[in-house]
Amino acid sequence: MKKLLLLLCMFSTAVALAQYNPNAPWMKTLENKNNKPLKFEEIVDAFNTYWKDKDHTKKGSGYKPFKRWEAYWKHFVKEDGTLPTPQELYATLEQKRALEAKLVDQSNWQSLGPYAHTNTGSWSSGQGRVNVITVDPNNQNVIYVGAPAGGIWKSTDAGTTWTPLSDELLQIGVSAIAIDNRDSNVIYIGTGDDDGADSYSIGVLKSTDGGLTWNSTNLTFRDNSSFINEVYLDPTNQDKVFVSSNRGFYKSTDGGANFTVTLNQDLDDIKLKPGDSNVIYAATNTDVFVSIDNGDSFQLADTGLPSISSRLVLAVSADAPNNVYVLSAASDRSFQGIFKSINSGGSYSRLDDGSLDLFDGSTQAWYDLALEVSDVNSDQIYLGTVDVFRSIDGGVNFEKWNSWSNPSGSTYTHADIHMIREFNGNLFFGTDGGIYELPAGLASTVDLTEGLAIGQFYRISVSNQTSNNIMGGLQDNGGYAYSDNNWKNYYGADGMDTAIDPNDPNKYYGFVQNGGGLYFSNDAGVSLAGSINGPEQGNWITPLIMNKEGELYAGYTRLYKLESGQFQVVSQNLLDNIDGIAVDPIDSDNMYVFINRVLRKSVDRGATFTVAHTFNGNITSLAVSSTNNEVVYVTTTTNVYKSVNGGVDFEDITFNLPFDTKLVVKHQGLHPDNPIFVGTSLGVYRLDETQNTWETFANNLPNTAVRDIEINELDGNITIATYGRGVWRSDIPEVQAGVDMAMLSGGIGQSQTFVCGNVTPRVTLQNNGTATITDFIVRYDLNNASVVEQSWSGSLAPNENVDVVFPTITLDEIGQQTLSFSVEAVNDAFVVNNSRTANFFVNKSADLDVFDFESQDQEFVVQGGLWERGIPTGTLLNAASSGQNVYATNLSGNYSDQTRSYLVSRCYDLSAIENPVLKFDMAFDIELDWDFVNVEYTLDGGTTWQILGQFGDPSWYNSETLPGNNCRNCPGAQWTGADTTLKEYSYDLVSLTNETSFIFRFNFVSDQSVNNEGVVIDDVRIEGNSLSIDDFENQIAFVVYPNPSKDIFNIQWRNASTVKYSVYDITGKLVLKKDDLDLSDQETQIDLSSFTKGVYFLKIALDSKESNVKLLKR
Q1: The CATH number, out of the four listed (2.40.10.10, 3.40.50.1100, 2.60.40.1930, 3.30.420.10), of the domain defined by the range 1030-1113
Q2: For residue range 646-689, what is the model confidence (pLDDT) as tens digits?
Q3: Which residues, 6+ apart, have CB-to-CB distance to 442 below 8 Å?
Q4: Contact 330, 388 (CB under 8 A)
Q5: Which numeric CATH code is attached to 458-731?
Q6: Using CA atoms, how far apart are residues 641 and 344, in angstroms rounded to an integer?
Q7: Could you tell me which residue ranges the Secretion system C-terminal sorting domain spans (predicted)?
Q8: pTM score of the predicted model
Q9: Measured distance CA(995)–CA(908) in Å, rounded
């Protein structure tokens, strides 16, 4: 038996599995062309024709799996329009290995997973697709799974930990696994992605050492569209190997050394009769065949089955060995019925009565369809498409067993079920989100995906301030956010392009497919802060980018900019969807977009674009040098190019790069040799200006497709997003310049989002060079107005930091403000790290004012762009409490779908108000139990928010619905449904009477579909009695600052003869106490540095008076 690499040399006429699943309905129109390789555009055109008159937004329609395939394989198209063969792919691997042998590789890649995650906002939480699951017949703690582009993985502890077994091979998918029951080290795998065609097939491979190494078998394919869907071993003779493929039934009697085709049919499934392996059942799209001679011959046996169908899958049960079960999809891929034979396939009758759609509306049975009948109790039947349905009475009745959109459900699995299989009474599910187990005798599923780094990432972003903050878009598993060494899944669907604010490492942005919705988080993915709809339908991967000032741009047929929570048109119509965007890191006025082969450039921040260059192949990526913005790098599918005149002319710098597809290019700044890195279908390569030879950058990195690259010069590392093996990171070679002044941060010296009063601009600078810096100039401007500058002189040694603080300024106008900072030092080598931008909101203080919104000076701050002030003219919501104006989610119609928007109050000092009560008038018409509005409050300027009140409080919320099948975002305290008459709502704030910085906001949230008129708010006020000077004199005179704090809280007081305090934790336990403090300084400190983060309560006594204050330790 030859080794795998020798096997691949034989593929002189084979074509890669890049020709999509032939069971997809649009592929049927191309069947007559199978005598020659199909062109990529032929497949795409057939798909577009099929979908012209169909709703592709419906869950389970089958639209998304193809768009994923198209987005990946379009970069592999050759000059003749076809896709590469395994021989060509192997040739590029050999070129890569030749480079590895010649050059010193400076990389040290480590996997960042995701190996595990926390769901912080996704409605369909998952981690990566699993096609197939097999349990070792000799040890049920040993489990194998196959992924579509992540290869085969093994667990030896029942799914607690996992190990990859195929990283040394070409990147492969696995759709079938079989284990020899005589020797568990003997394993067979059917390669390729049978369902989604994310990877090509190289036939059946065999391992004899438990998966450590792999050898070829005799089964290889030499045509343009072969798939393997099942591999079984004869229980009575494990040298007999049975393989189901769309090219027929293959049988080997010598452990894979030789195979014979005994049934020339396009097979979707096979099963062996329990207890009698002479009987084998084989299913095509429309028929079932039976062999009674161990697979040597087959006879048609479809009596009682539908005459026309599009896919059939099979199940058998050791509990009823004569039974055969068939799940059928109709010609439109909808549910057609479940059928049962009690005579080993002699005839069938329908089990279900047809009253329940067991596909639940799905029409993508060609992609996900699974059936299993328990070996322990044949009355238990499970079937899956998008969700799982179950019968416990032999098929008389079925129920929907779980829901893909309810991740908190006890039987949750991710959507799209590719396999259901029982082993030893335990039921396993392979889904688009991972592997789930229903252990025998239990009623709840267990997610076993933790430890599997099989994520198929489209794009990734890394904060330029800290590489520990990452945002990525994951196929079918939404937006993945990384911070504090943990991954958070903060929104669902297909995560796409992403961005992190360069001036705030905690502000994350992420698209879903086609740019249909933008989801954002203000706390690095710990929670979903909101979302807005896209302005039109973009590409499957709609590009998203943020410039150094923090302005966010998106590419559709026009360039759009996010302003005030909405996308605003920037550019002219470019007549086709934009494929990619790049922004000059030095001068944000310079922007580039590309569509297919054409590169366009703008010098006016995207207002107008002109054609700069047209390439011979489609552009896949563009990067502008952060050292010299005249230098531009471009990758096409086959080449790498460099321009030294701002994108007008290009030279080919492909040099010795292998022929694998070039997917992304990135420039490493802050390095005198200007290195660039290119990600390809096989890995990463590096080139710098001192050489014309590319070197591999691949130590410890699997052979995997690299879809995106991010470089963090500050931390000296490179991070990549792979399509099948998750996220990886390596150090990069660094060279320090003589003079390099870097601005680490710029802002107002506090983390709060809302400022009520004065601000103090300040920056933190670092000497990143090798020489001591003795002077520099720091400048700032507010909202592009006049520049303020300050000179510094002294001695700043290498790697030392310094803070520069400007005089305090007073801001009177509410709304968003932007501070732009820059630093200038003589002979500074790099300017790209010399600036920062800080965005924040200025708010005003209020007392007992009534806000009726009749004049402009009564406006509130709006975040998310939905709320508007004016006269309401809706059908149901058309009244004001006083005057004419209100705030409404839409003054004249329905609110937008997929939105989270805030209406933010003024700032209140509740310590100056006796018995404060929040009151407002509201009417609402909201989609019941899907959309909602509630009130949140902050005591720290918007850094953290909490829900005000709870269901059951008087004159307050009408719903306590928690996240579930309906209201996925409901916190359990909200208004939902309809009450269209304006009425007063109120909440007693007496528990917050000591708070000096109280802000509240109306939080409105809508889901992906169905919208009503929304919410109207009027006459917002806090009622109570203003305390007089005498009242204040009678109160305890003290102040606590800062609050919140990471460690030290200062207490100042006046006119007290005795002072003592106690500190309690959230449970009421005394944790700290001080009596008889030194009164001479009228000040003391509380040190909570050794305590955990959270809320504490301070009880302070000055003379005979006591008061309580809440402390927030970060």
Answers
A1: 2.60.40.1930
A2: 999 999 999 999 989 999 999 999 999 999 999 999 999 999 99
A3: none
A4: no
A5: 2.130.10.10
A6: 63
A7: 1040-1110
A8: 0.84
A9: 8
